[in-house]
Each structure stands twice: as C-alpha cells, then as structure tokens.
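Today's session is about reading a structure prediction critically. Students often jump straight to the picture, but the first step is always the sequence itself: look for stretches that repeat, for charged clusters, for runs of hydrophobic residues. Only then move on to the predicted structure, which in these notes is written as discrete structure tokens rather than atom positions. Here is the chain we will use throughout the hour.
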Amino acid sequence: MLRNFENVVLGRRLPGDSEACRRLLGDLVHLRFRLAGDSVSEVRRDLRVTLADQLANLGGTLGLFTGMSVLSFCEVLFWTLKAVLGSVWRGHPGKRA
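Below is the predicted structure for this chain, in token form.
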C-alpha cells in the first residue's frame, strides 16, 4: 500500500487496477518534515507536587467555585466538629455537668 502511495505521489504507473488504486490513494496526503539541524533536545517533566502546591490548588479551587478561603474552610470545619463532638459528649453518662 505504501509503495502504491509513493507511485501515485511520484506519478508512476501502478500495477494491476491502477484506477482503483488512484481513487483509493488519491485522498491521502504525503508530508515530509525537514529539521533545521541534527541536534534534538529532550525535555523531562516531573509531576512532583509539594504540600504548598496542593494547599494553593485547594485554596484557588475553593475561592473560585465557592468564594471560600482556606481559613474560612478551616473555621467551618472547626465549628462543625465542635458542634458534633459537643452533642456527643453531652449525652455521655460519665460527664459531670
């Protein structure tokens, strides 16, 4: 198939059913890339995310989608835990009033 494609691109005669091959290969495109030099640069990326990066991503996402800061999130978490744990401890029989 590749050889037939080369023949179509170069305008050579095709063996066998040349018209069918020309129709089949006529919609293909031949691209040739030439590089300016012989050197190639290799780039490596590490996907290391530090705790500060994670905290910044969390704060940015909360700020963007809910309008909440990280400090506000911590405060909501604090008051929620205080309310839940307070109600649990209130019902504990060993606790003095």
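Discussion point for the tutorial: The mean pLDDT is 76.
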